[in-house]
């Protein structure tokens, strides 16, 4: 436990440093994108014949604030806000706190991504084991081919395809947002059923897009473990099949946990296309919108949340390893 | 459960491997008897079929290989070749213990030795798991290890010599009285080798085992084996009491092997390597003697007729040149 606690402390320290670095980079990059929404609006009003003072005043009324101080002073304010989890206000959401806007969007991204990824992970690894064991037969071939095929199709093509088939050609599923606006939000059957209904296509897209990767990765991992000496040794010692199967599964699944953690971290930011196709007001759509509108605070916040989720995913994966792999736990090198 | 050393009769055993060139024999028509309570050593080069022969004792030849003919009759177990499914699984480990080459990782890297011991016990329906652990600690202690510590360790925390002793413990802990050791000392340093061989000899005597040792190292069999069998190209070319075979080898291959051993004293040039290379599955001759390409005593008959293994007292030799001379 001491080892794990020390690992955690080290990871957290490094994680905080990384977050600061990324926050700094995104702060300056975002602000060097051409186009300044406040200046643009003021300029527009001046061109419409308003006096500069009045134009600035009108803009302040519209956006609720005016940038003050130099870029460095703004950076100082930003860092100070960061420490108190204050990411500023979003100019495009009528001055609402960025954290609120992000939290609202996050629920439409996190749940479908989590459901889709876990679903594809479970199905992919189970079928991957079969694909490995039956690799010389027709079933194994079929599974491997299905994996390669789906792995090769880009996520947004799958999304468009599913949307075209199940929402347009055979309109049995909705693709028009996260929930039907007819229902009152809350714990009533209609609302929840509508949530599920609307989630089917995006979740299926996430799952199908990731499934190919899982099945191929699991297959090759199982094939490697099957060739390991200790599996033959266990057979020659007369171990039960169920026990040998557990030996194989546990050893084969090990390398896949890193990929799982990383893909969960990455998917939070990579959901842009799918959210666009299915009109989910999630983080991906929010990011695109904030970039178009030059909403600096929101952009910075969206970048930050993606960064943090990847860093956290890494830390979780690493700690998880120390729990499940004794070779990592004792801090020794993993022998090949 | 067999409480005393079982005898083993291997009769006409042929094991083939499926290759693009058809099914080719890795072990051909091998007949060998392991007397109860003895240590038998099988010597051969890589690819001579000795490991395949060892796996046959557990009916565990791995695909694409299969036992094509012959039988392996073990006292208290019957013909292992005919065993299937659960009966076969239960025989493995409980009746026949198998010890892997030390360099091979024969343990699950994610579990402690102790947990794998319990898995083994549960697989074989052992009710008294505490007793099993006690027995394992005793065996490990007998081999000079701290049993409690070893059971609490993972494979990567053990040295090669320690792993090998764990392997021997796992082969014996279910009270198997027939033990197969596949290259038990390969990849170990000289001191550890000597230690392991001493342990094999002592445990063999103390527990009353029938032991089969597979090795490419004539020194190993010279040290532990009562009987010695020499394999070449999937055939047993010579067998007999170890001292007699090593002292007065008859088959030209055995003679060549012994001549090839460098001596500790004297001129290194006295050691003469056998000319040519051992056959592989594909290059081994389909008919005639498997050794003729490298044989100094080659005759015309060797090209066409496979020499029969003929017994002369306790010794068996499969060679036209030797047997013609002896029986003329």
UniProtKB/TrEMBL annotation, chain A:
- GO biological process per UniProt: transmembrane transport
Q: What family is reported?
A: Belongs to the binding-protein-dependent transport system permease family.
Mainly resides where?
membrane
Which stretch is the leader sequence? none
Indicate whether Cell membrane appears among the record's keywords.
Answer: no
Listed CDD domains? TM_PBP2
Q: What keywords would UniProt list here?
A: Membrane, Transmembrane, Transmembrane helix, Transport
**A Pfam family that the UniProt record links to this protein:** BPD_transp_1
How does this protein sit in the membrane? Multi-pass membrane protein
Task: Give the protein name, as stated in the record.
Answer: ABC transporter permease
Q: Which GO terms describe its cellular component?
A: plasma membrane
Q: Which domain of life is it from?
A: Bacteria
Tagged with keyword Zinc: no
Instruction: Indicate the transmembrane segments per the record.
Output: 12-30, 110-133, 153-173, 253-278, 298-321
According to its UniProt record, where is this protein located? Cell membrane; Membrane
Q: Which residues form the ABC transmembrane type-1 domain?
A: 106-317
Concerning PANTHER family, the annotation shows: OLIGOPEPTIDE TRANSPORT SYSTEM PERMEASE PROTEIN
């Amino acid at each position: 436990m001491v080892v794990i606690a020390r690992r955690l402390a080290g990871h957290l320290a490094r994680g905080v440093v990384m977050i600061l670095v990324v926050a700094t980079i995104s702060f300056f990059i975002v602000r060097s994108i051409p186009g300044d929404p406040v200046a643009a609006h003021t300029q527009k009003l001046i061109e419409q014949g308003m006096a500069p003072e009045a134009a600035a005043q009108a803009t302040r009324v519209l956006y609720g604030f005016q940038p003050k101080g130099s870029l460095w002073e703004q950076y100082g304010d930003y860092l100070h806000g960061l420490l108190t989890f204050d990411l500023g206000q979003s100019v495009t959401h009528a001055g609402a706190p960025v954290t609120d806007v992000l939290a609202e969007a996050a629920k439409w991204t996190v749940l479908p991504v989590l459901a889709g990824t876990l679903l594809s992970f479970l199905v992919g690894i189970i079928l991957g084991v079969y694909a490995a064991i039956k690799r010389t037969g027709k079933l194994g071939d079929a599974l491997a081919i299905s994996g390669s095929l789906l792995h090769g199709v880009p996520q947004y093509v799958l999304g468009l395809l599913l949307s075209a088939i199940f929402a347009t050609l055979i309109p049995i599923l909705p693709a028009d947002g996260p929930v039907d606006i007819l229902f009152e939000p809350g714990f009533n059957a209609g609302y929840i059923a509508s949530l599920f209904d609307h989630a089917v296509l995006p979740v299926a897209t996430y799952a199908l897009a990731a499934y190919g990767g899982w099945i191929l990765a699991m297959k090759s991992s199982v094939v490697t473990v099957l060739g390991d000496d200790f599996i033959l040794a266990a057979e020659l010692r007369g171990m039960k099949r169920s026990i040998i199967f557990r030996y194989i599964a546990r050893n084969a699944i090990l390398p896949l946990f890193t990929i799982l953690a990383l893909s969960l971290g990455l998917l939070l930011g990579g959901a842009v296309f799918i959210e666009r196709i299915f009109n989910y007001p999630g983080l991906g759509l929010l990011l695109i919108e904030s970039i178009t509108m030059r909403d600096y605070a929101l952009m910075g916040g969206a970048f930050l949340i993606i960064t943090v989720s990847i860093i956290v995913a890494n830390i979780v994966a690493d700690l998880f390893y120390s729990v499940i792999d004794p070779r990592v736990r004792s801090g020794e090198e993993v022998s090949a | 459960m067999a409480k005393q050393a079982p005898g083993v009769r291997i009769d006409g055993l042929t094991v083939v491997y499926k290759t693009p060139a058809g099914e080719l024999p890795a072990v051909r028509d091998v007949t060998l008897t392991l007397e109860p309570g003895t240590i038998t050593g099988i010597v051969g080069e890589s690819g001579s079929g000795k490991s395949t022969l060892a796996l046959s004792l557990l009916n565990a030849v791995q695909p694409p290989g299969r036992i094509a003919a012959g039988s392996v009759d073990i006292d208290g177990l019957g013909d292992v070749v005919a065993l299937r499914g659960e009966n076969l699984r239960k025989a493995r480990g409980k009746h026949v213990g198998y010890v892997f080459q030390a360099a091979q990782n024969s343990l699950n890297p994610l579990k402690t030795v102790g947990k794998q011991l319990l898995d083994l016990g549960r697989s074989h329906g052992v009710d008294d798991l505490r007793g099993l652990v006690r027995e394992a600690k005793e065996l490990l202690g007998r081999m000079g290890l701290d049993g409690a510590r070893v059971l609490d360790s993972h494979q990567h925390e053990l040295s090669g010599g320690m792993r090998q002793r764990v392997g021997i413990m796992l082969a014996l802990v279910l009270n198997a009285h027939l033990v197969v050791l596949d290259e038990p000392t390969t990849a170990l340093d000289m001191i550890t080798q000597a230690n392991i061989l001493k342990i094999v000899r002592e445990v063999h005597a103390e527990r009353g085992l029938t032991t089969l040792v597979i090795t490419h190292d004539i020194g190993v069999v010279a040290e532990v084996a009562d009987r010695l069998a020499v394999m070449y190209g999937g055939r047993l070319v010579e067998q007999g009491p170890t001292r007699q075979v090593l002292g007065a080898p008859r088959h030209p291959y055995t003679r060549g092997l012994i001549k090839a051993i460098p001596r500790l004293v004297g001129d290194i040039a006295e050691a003469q390597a056998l000319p040519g290379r051992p056959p592989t599955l594909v290059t081994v001759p389909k008919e005639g003697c498997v050794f003729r390409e490298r044989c100094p005593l080659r005759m015309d008959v060797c090209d066409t007729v496979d020499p029969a293994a003929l017994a002369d007292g306790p010794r068996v030799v499969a060679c036209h040149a030797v047997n013609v001379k002896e029986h003329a």
